[in-house]
Design goal:
This protein has 64 residues and is mainly α. It is 77% helix and 0% strand. The longest helix is centred in the middle third of the chain and has 15 residues. The relative contact order is 0.11.
Length: 64
């Protein structure tokens, strides 16, 4: 839409994170995964915030 070069798409996406997503990226994801392609970043976001994944993580936490 804004003709952002592929090399900067992840950077632009990260700059626009807010709330839980911003916290997740800066506290848990950035240091573990390092530089990612847009496709890899999209998969990381989906796997972290997909409704069922979140539900399963809460269930795991409650069994500790």
């Amino acid at each position: 839409m804004f003709q952002i070069p592929d090399a900067f798409r992840v950077t632009v996406a990260i700059m626009n994170l807010s709330g839980r997503a911003d916290h997740w990226y800066h506290q848990a994801h950035k240091d573990v995964c390092g530089t990612q392609s847009m496709e890899q970043f999209e998969q990381s976001v989906l796997s972290e915030f997909e409704v069922n994944t979140h539900r399963y993580k809460l269930m795991e936490l409650s069994t500790l």
